[in-house]
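Technical annex, item 7. During the second reporting period the consortium partners agreed on a shared format for inverse folding records so that results from different sites could be compared directly. Each record opens with the tokenized structure and is followed by the designed sequence. A conforming record, contributed by the partner at site C, is shown below for reference.
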């Protein structure tokens, strides 16, 4: 029998606390948790968990007794036990397609809220198909993509559309998201997750088709909408006044934004257009950088489709548990601009939502985004269950939390 959420011993479990990102999320909670939070660290290796706890006790000596929950990501019984002991679980155990499915199932069964930082569209699709309806019944809110992919795009679009509704009377019909200036590094887990998608996609035609579908994460992925494939090639965007090129994360972010629109009862309209690209500077130098980066990206993706290059890359790039140094994280940042045009009923009105962070996006800011999502899931009143998105679960409440935690979500008219 499941214990009522309010009677469970823990508020939050950080699952994967021994990993590079998981340890940062644990540290974020150690520094920013509200008083009285009942939380625990979870993972498969007790010794490593105890070492993470020791580091947290340096931040706050009262954490030296923080409970440790040990289990393997494939041990259904253990996961059911852990999911039944807490109100919220946040997971950083990836690649999620390899290690994530059983934990989500356990959370859905137990009515436990869950958030992760996956950027793997096929994993999210599988969780939607397997659990959305059941999660609605048990009340579990399953919130994938609560890190750099896809919070800036998803919550930035929501913030912009809320502004348009308030100031122009209706949401924008067209929204274009541009990932701009940024500085950051990459960790072993992220590389492993990317490699796994590329490797699977080279062998599986259905997966390639799914990844190419702009509505891959919509409630009904067969239903066509107004958007086509993600932008390819280099072009100048007159609304932004900068050169642009393809953005690798558009493959997940744009699908999440379109799912949010559908789950919010088409709050942005059924004819809503969304696209995502990378942006560069305005002049000829910007065009050259856009061409060089886009060409480099195409070469890298083409190269990674070849098994020997993947093997070589695995040896040269960071391995499990490795990632950018503290200095690199703290000197990192990102800035995303999300432009709305075609305000229905307000003619030529245009606005931009700037979303920015003051640490590197993938780790420092991602730890903040997942940490605040975990804390936000504890707040009342709770929304309904389902396999949701950041915008369709916590929405503007999470934007407020992230603003208070130092992230920028700022709208101005153009
Ligand atoms: N959305 C974003 O912006 C974003 C940012 C950063 C990372 N990510 C994603 O987050 C994931 C983790 O990345 P990372 O670099 O932090 O990875 P990592 O350092 O390799 O950590 C992986 C974690 O998974 C645990 N794990 C592996 N197999 C397990 C199993 N069978 N049972 C239980 N735990 C298991 C590891 O435990 P051990 O320590 O015991 O090995 C470790 O705690 C990746 O999928 C990555 O793509 C996303």
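Designed sequence (site C submission):
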């Amino acid at each position: 029998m499941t214990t009522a959420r309010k009677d469970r011993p823990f508020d939050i479990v950080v699952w994967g606390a021994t990993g590079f990102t998981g340890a940062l999320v644990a540290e974020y909670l150690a520094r920013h948790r509200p008083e009285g939070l009942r939380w625990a660290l979870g993972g498969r290796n007790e010794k490593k968990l105890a070492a993470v706890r020791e580091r947290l006790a340096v931040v706050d000596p009262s954490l030296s007794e923080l409970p440790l929950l040990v289990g393997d990501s494939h041990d259904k019984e253990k996961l059911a036990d852990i999911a039944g002991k807490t109100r919220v679980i946040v997971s950083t155990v990836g690649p999620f397609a390899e290690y994530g499915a059983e934990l989500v199932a356990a959370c859905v069964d137990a009515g436990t809220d869950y958030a992760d930082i996956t950027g793997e569209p096929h994993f999210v699709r599988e969780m939607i198909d397997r659990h959305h309806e059941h999660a609605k019944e048990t009340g579990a809110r399953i919130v994938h993509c609560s890190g750099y992919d896809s919070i800036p795009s998803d919550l930035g679009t929501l913030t912009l559309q809320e502004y348009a509704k308030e100031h122009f009377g209706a949401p924008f019909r067209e929204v274009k998201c541009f990932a701009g200036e940024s500085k950051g590094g990459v960790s072993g887990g992220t590389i492993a997750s990317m490699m796994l998608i590329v490797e699977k996609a080279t062998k599986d035609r259905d997966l390639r088709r799914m990844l190419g579908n702009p509505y891959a994460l919509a409630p009904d992925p067969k239903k066509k909408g107004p958007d086509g494939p993600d932008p390819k090639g280099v072009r100048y965007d007159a609304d932004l006044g900068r050169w642009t090129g393809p953005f690798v994360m558009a493959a997940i972010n744009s699908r999440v934004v379109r799912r949010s629109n559908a789950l919010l009862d088409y709050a942005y309209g059924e004819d809503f257009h969304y696209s995502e690209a990378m942006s560069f500077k305005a002049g000829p130098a910007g065009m050259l950088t856009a061409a060089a980066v886009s060409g480099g990206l195409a070469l890298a993706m083409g190269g990674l489709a070849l098994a020997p290059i993947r093997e070589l890359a695995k040896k040269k790039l960071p391995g499990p548990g490795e990632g950018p140094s503290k200095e690199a994280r703290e000197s990192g940042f990102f800035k995303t601009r999300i432009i709305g045009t075609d305000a229905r009923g307000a003619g030529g009105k245009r606005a931009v939502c700037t979303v920015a962070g003051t640490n590197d996006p993938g780790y420092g800011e991602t730890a903040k985004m997942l940490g605040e999502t975990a804390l936000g899931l504890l707040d009342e009143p709770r929304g309904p269950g389902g396999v949701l998105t950041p915008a369709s679960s916590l929405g503007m409440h999470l934007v407020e939390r992230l603003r208070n935690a130092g992230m920028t979500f700022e709208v101005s008219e153009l």
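The longest strand covers residues 172-183. Residues 151-360+399-413 form one domain. All partners now use this format for quarterly exchanges.
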